[in-house]
Specification:
Strand content: 15-25%
CATH class of the largest domain: Mainly Beta
CATH superfamily of the largest domain: Jelly Rolls
Largest sheet: 8 strands, antiparallel
Number of helices: 11
Number of strands: 10
Shape: elongated
Radius of gyration: 21 Å
Structural class: alpha+beta
Helix content: 40-55%
CATH architecture of the largest domain: Sandwich
Length: 295
């Protein structure tokens, strides 16, 4: 099949398909997005009455919530929401990342996606009994997502059969990942001691003029090695992570204090209010002033 799904262009991009217009009945929503900076999007509170939603974060970082819990997701994380769960994105913002998602209408009332009745029932029972929100994904899952999108973008007489077939492969690979995580307790990455020490240091000293060199020294790693290891374990560069910590604190000050934007910038470790505003908008998608007015 001709390769229609192109991820090579380094730009903001979003591709979506919905059941009513271009999918089969058991696939209610399918999509992929790449954002190079934070973007406001419709991630307000919502539920899926009869669909399981699977999201795979290829790279980057984002923050979502389900019911009363907040989840930080990093590159390589696989994330699941069950039907009728209230969920959304923190501040309705999609942070810089690349991710796939699919919503599958899976019920034990009958067969779906070409599985037999017995297979369909077993899949739903396993999903309902899983109660595991996050696990580590893999390249197989990423490839199946890409193949499913490629089929969705195609036009041929066997398109619906191919959609079901690719969705079957994707769903089975998703189940394998959650099953493996549950069995081996290989949940999303636990940080090594070096990186954990660095993160703890950032969270304690973010309000100071701390440098990446200072943080690398705390980790016990050489600077180049530290940068590579940090990106591998968190999906973010050390500076991006530090700025994320600073902006999270800034959000609380903007919501709960009357301090000026300049004072908040300094309180969060930024050297100028202009740079603070630039970083804030890149991560949150709006300026500090607009954020404060909305809250």
């Amino acid at each position: 099949m001709k390769q229609l799904f192109n991820r090579s262009a380094k730009q903001h991009k979003r591709i979506t398909f919905e059941e009513e217009s271009s999918l089969v009945s058991d696939i209610t929503y399918l999509g992929w997005a790449r954002t190079l900076r934070a973007m406001e999007t419709d991630l307000s509170a919502h539920t899926h009455d009869d669909a399981f939603e699977f999201c795979y974060l290829v790279k980057g970082h984002t923050r979502w919530w389900v019911e009363q819990e907040i989840y930080d997701l990093h590159g390589g994380d696989l994330y699941l929401t069950w039907p009728q769960e209230n969920h959304g994105g923190i501040d309705n913002v999609l942070h810089p990342c690349e991710l796939f998602w699919v919503q599958l209408r899976l019920t034990d009332a009958g067969a779906f996606l070409g599985f037999s009745d017995a297979e369909s029932k077993a899949i739903v029972q396993e999903l309902k009994g899983l109660r595991l929100r996050k696990c580590v994904g893999n390249k197989i899952i990423e490839d199946h997502f890409a193949s499913l999108l490629n089929v969705a973008m195609s036009e041929n007489p066997f398109r619906e059969a191919q959609l079901r077939s690719q969705a079957q492969l994707l769903l089975l690979s998703l189940l394998d990942a959650f099953r493996f995580a549950k069995k081996t307790k290989t949940f999303p990455k636990q940080h090594s001691t070096s990186i954990a020490n660095a993160i703890q240091f950032m969270k304690k000293h973010f309000h100071t003029n701390v440098t990446i060199e200072d943080i690398a020294e705390v980790s016990g790693l050489k600077l180049t090695q530290f940068r590579v290891r940090f990106k591998e374990e968190t999906g973010m560069s050390p500076l991006s992570f530090l700025n994320q910590v600073r902006i999270n604190y800034a959000k609380e000050l903007l919501k709960n204090s009357s301090q000026s934007i300049t004072d908040i910038a300094f309180a969060c470790g930024f050297q100028t209010s202009q740079y603070f505003a630039t970083v804030f908008k890149r991560i949150i998608g709006i300026s500090p002033l607009v954020f404060r007015k909305r809250k």
